[in-house]
């Protein structure tokens, strides 16, 4: 055994001893008739930041606060503790003669991490720190674990995501990121509600994986004895509601895609889709830039955010480029002069673009964009008029039917939103679905399935409609300066830790 290995074992043994001592303290409390887990409630009257922000009005007032002990400094007959509640931290001054001869020795046994209730008066110490002078301290819950040490904190990124509850306790900036997320989501909803959009709910379990090109999670319904899919998008249901007569609808919720995981992708993520009758993709473009700018301003105080050292300005209007213009600018290839699939494939080979089975001109254009254009889009930019081959649900452009009236919104090289004038021609839509089935036969496991009921809905009649989808988590990464999507999802998907995995790691 190496020296480092020996030190690790000693640390583990010491930690186990600390945990043992905490359990002994709990048993002592139980033996004294003071089982903290029998406490059912505590009448909290105030919170840390409210007291600090309103000290002049609160000075001398009796308050009851509750929170977790984060630091403890005991000297003889008096001591200071810092407790952390939902708003922040506040210092409490605890004296033996104030809380009682019998109570004080019990208070001294409390540990960092314990949850307590404190009743006392608001005052300011000689060092000008706003505090609460305790007249009673009640243990509400005993912490049997040890919080990470103050100055090192919880630095293991993997452990932070697995134990988010500890992460939120010891890393205040993490909690702040999620408070910012909540502000931004409230701003998003209120913006749409104020403009006459109706929030709705559609199925998460689907019999067809439709509405996007993605690999689904598959499950089985025992009673019906059929396969079912966690939704990859809610698009087709929302458009059915437009058919049914709702003019403006939106739904925000979880989507599920059985794909890779990286700093920008989690298999379970939050998206919002919205649809507006009698509107087109230009209206959706205006909605996108305005609503994201509004979210930024409400949540952060500005339309300009700093992401990992780069300033990104969401103030409208955003830059607009067609996909072909973007490809021409960054690759030098002008697809307006390339008419056939054969010509497009030849240029793709010259530029080192991967050729896939059945690839056509439109798919080559999209591949060029992904290879040469996407990583140049730092400031918010709309890329418009995608090829019809990669846009199975978008309306064709009237001037050039090889293109669609579609856009994707990019910032920091990431796609943030996808929108188009919705395809409402049932004959064209069925042909697009057939094309998707052809791709599936060629091995594309992300291609859409046929949805006969959706075709039927279009035959009933879908008015001209604009549709928009926004990836909420990526927007939140930019608004909170979070380098990973896991930093803006409270409980990101993680590989379970098993006993076997632990043994393998030790070996």
From TrEMBL:
Enzyme Commission number: 6.1.1.6
Native species: Intestinibacter bartlettii
Subcellular location: Cytoplasm
GO molecular function term, any single one: lysine-tRNA ligase activity
Cofactor(s) the protein needs: Mg(2+)
Subunit structure: Homodimer.
Protein name: Lysine--tRNA ligase
Listed InterPro entries: Aa-tRNA-synt_II, aa-tRNA-synth_II, aa-tRNA-synth_II/BPL/LPL, Lys-tRNA-ligase_II, Lys-tRNA-ligase_II_bac/euk, Lys-tRNA-ligase_II_N, Lys-tRNA-synth_II_C, NA-bd_OB-fold
Gene designation per UniProt: lysS
